[in-house]
Write a structure and sequence with these properties.
6-stranded antiparallel β-sheet; 6-stranded parallel β-sheet; globular; Rossmann fold; 12 helices; 3 domains; alpha/beta
Length: about 425
């Protein structure tokens, strides 16, 4: 098998029309990203012609099918097998939720290879890429078989028990399953419903996993898929895949010096609060006394939808501190509700600022050891902006030992994860 070490990485000009010959994995990865839609469409064309039933598990709209496929292939070609292969195994286990038998991966690998006819590849690169793609698909196949033998369920079904609308942009959906759904605080679950045929969205439970077999999601009315999920009604049946990811990432504190005992800072944008909420509940349950600071950000005051629990967390666990920021101090009609806040809820002071990263940066510039790390979670555009504010500001001040961890989500969740150096969570179908 031809490995990554046998390919010399280089950046060169490429053309989907085949006017330039590609000779390296790096060149092919760049070309794949440039021809994202064309390559995905070609793969699906080949797959559907060879396995007609495959059409049933993918979204009807072409633009919604395997939105992260091409970037995942490019990423796999740019990284060593030691990094890619364990994550490919996880992916093979996760994709059992689609109902594909394990032996489909042999056909799928050939489709991935045959779709490379979009590009002009050197013979050596054709052989190397084919070997690598077959190897990855074989790893996925073997992992799926093993998970079946180990009795790991491919998916879970849960029924919507209740839906809350704390404001016009947010839905809190409570589900109940026949059996407990295992997940760690802050992990995400792939979710689909009958209203989203072939479309899966990664959602983070806002609670912790326990014997009650209940799970709650905080969903923002943004984008077609999210909007449909916010319209859930009691009795609806959802399908949930197995949990994935790590939140927050494991942190090596040995090199942090004076900051090793400082609090972790969580910057949560909108419903990014759900992941932090789950983490804090797990922290209290486990008796973890590590201090935590939270800055919750919303577009306007009415966007802060979980103040009652936030107040209770602070009262229950003195090691937890909360700040609230808003982009504007008035509530537009978008957020106007009959009762913006629950009765008897203490309304905290809310700092008006465009991005809470400015608050974190000011604190770090005053004392670089005030936080041992900053964890940003929420919509990709806001997390991107916040990470940029921190990175640029700290770099200008010469502060290099601050850990910035991002957990963004968006239309292409895998793309965002890879862009910010997070672990490879799997393909979003």
């Amino acid at each position: 098998m031809c490995g990554f070490a046998e390919i010399i990485y280089a950046v060169g000009w490429f053309s989907v029309t085949g006017t330039s010959t590609l000779t390296t994995f790096r060149e092919l990865a760049l070309a794949l990203r440039e021809a994202d839609a064309q390559y995905r469409e070609r793969v699906h064309e080949l797959l559907f012609s060879r396995i007609f039933e495959a059409r049933q598990v993918f979204a009807p709209a072409r633009s919604s099918r395997h939105v992260d496929l091409t970037v995942a292939i490019a990423w796999a070609l740019e990284n060593p097998a030691t990094t890619v292969d364990p994550l490919a195994a996880q992916l093979g286990q996760d994709h059992r939720r689609l109902g594909f038998p394990p032996d489909i991966y042999d056909t799928f690998a050939q489709c991935l290879i045959d779709a490379l006819d979009l590009f002009d590849l050197s013979p050596k690169l054709i052989d190397a890429t084919s070997a690598r793609l077959r190897s990855i698909c074989t790893i996925m196949k073997d992992a799926a078989v093993k998970a079946d033998w180990d009795g790991i369920p491919p998916a879970h079904t849960a029924t919507v028990a209740a839906v809350e609308r704390p404001n016009r942009k947010t839905a809190v959906v409570h589900l109940e399953s026949a059996f407990p759904i295992g997940f760690q605080p802050g992990q995400a679950l792939p979710v689909t419903t009958a209203h989203l045929p072939g479309v899966w969205r990664l959602l983070t439970p806002a609670n912790i996993s326990d014997e009650t077999a209940q799970v709650s999601f905080h969903i923002t009315d943004a984008g077609d898929a999210s909007t449909l999920l916010t319209l859930a009604r009691p009795g609806d049946v959802w399908t949930l895949g197995n949990a994935r990811g790590k939140f927050p990432e494991d942190l090596d504190v040995t090199y942090l010096g004076d900051a090793a005992t400082s609090p972790d800072l969580f910057l949560c944008y909108g419903t990014g609060w759900a992941a932090v909420r789950s983490y804090l509940l797990g922290k209290i349950t486990d008796g973890d006394s590590q201090p935590v600071a939270v800055i919750a950000h919303a577009e306007s005051p009415g966007g802060h939808y979980d103040l009652l629990l936030q107040n209770n967390l602070v009262e229950l666990a003195p090691e937890i501190s909360m700040q609230h920021t808003v982009s504007q101090d008035h509530d537009p009609v978008l957020y106007g509700t009959h009762r913006a806040f629950p009765e008897h809820t203490a309304i905290p002071e809310m700092t008006v600022i465009d991005n809470p990263a400015h608050v974190a940066l000011e604190a770090l510039l005053s004392n670089p050891h005030v936080f041992r790390r900053c964890v940003l979670v929420g919509p990709a555009d806001e997390v991107t902006e916040g990470a940029g504010i921190l990175n640029v500001g700290l770099a200008r001040a010469g502060i290099v030992d601050c850990v910035i961890e991002t957990h963004p989500w968006g239309e292409g969740q895998l793309t965002q994860s890879l862009k910010y150096g997070q672990s490879f969570p799997g393909l979003s179908d």
